[in-house]
Write a structure and sequence with these properties.
This protein has 2 domains: 6-127, 3-Layer(aba) Sandwich (Rossmann fold), CATH 3.40.50.2300; 154-213, Arc Repressor Mutant, subunit A. The protein is globular, with a radius of gyration of 17 Å. The protein has a 5-stranded parallel β-sheet with strand order 2-1-3-4-5, with helices on both faces. The chain contains 10 helices and 5 strands; from the N terminus they run E-H-E-H-E-H-E-H-E-H-H-H-H-H-H. Mean pLDDT is 82; it is low at 144-150. It is 49% helix and 11% strand. The protein has helices at 14-26, 38-48, 64-72, 91-99, 111-122, 130-140, 159-169, 174-181, 185-198, 204-213, and strands spanning 6-10, 30-35, 52-56, 80-85, 104-106. Residues 150-215 form the HTH luxR-type domain. The modification 4-aspartylphosphate is found at residue 56. One of its GO terms (biological process) is regulation of DNA-templated transcription.
Length: 222
Amino acid sequence: MRDTVRVVVADDQALVRTGFRMILTADGIDVVGEATTGQEAVDAARRTRPDVVLMDIRMPEMDGLEATRRILATDGEGPRVLMLTTFDLDEYVYAALTAGASGFLLKDVTPEQLTGAVRLVRAGDALLAPSITRRLVERFAGRGEQASAVHRDLAALTPREREVLKLLAHGMSNAELAAELQLSEATVKTHVARILGKLQLRDRVQAVVVAYETGLVAPGEP
């Protein structure tokens, strides 16, 4: 794994791009490309092969959602995508999560939150806590407006894995899962890894989305 994190910043506002670039480079993160439209973001991601793309949702010509779909649809190990938004519960963010984005950031994040988020998703984790993701999913799941809804066959999962996925979708951390199921955290991590592998998911965020999209968990269910 490379020591330096490589990032593409996609936003149609020059001041936003400049501010993010200054914050990231000051923390030793390498900004390898910038984009003002969704198409430019796709081109930059293909050209520079970054670890993370900071993607604004609302951009001219092609929005960040479509750009995210195209970037994550490529074969092989593509970059992680963090969506940028001015709204903490934007319906477009939910659609982006179903397309494979690893989370979202509000544009008023602190420098520490920005660099921390980039490093977190680069390491293979998801930015959103499952409880926050659940709130997002419950608000928008089942409305039908997201064309990129994730569909997976849960038949590949064992009964225990289905149980873990259901609890994960309710916002439980690995420690809470371990306590609830009377398992070690190492065993829980193994179950989660197998769930992600069998369902071909990037991270826990997508796993929560899948739990709702497949009906394993219903919005509002305790």
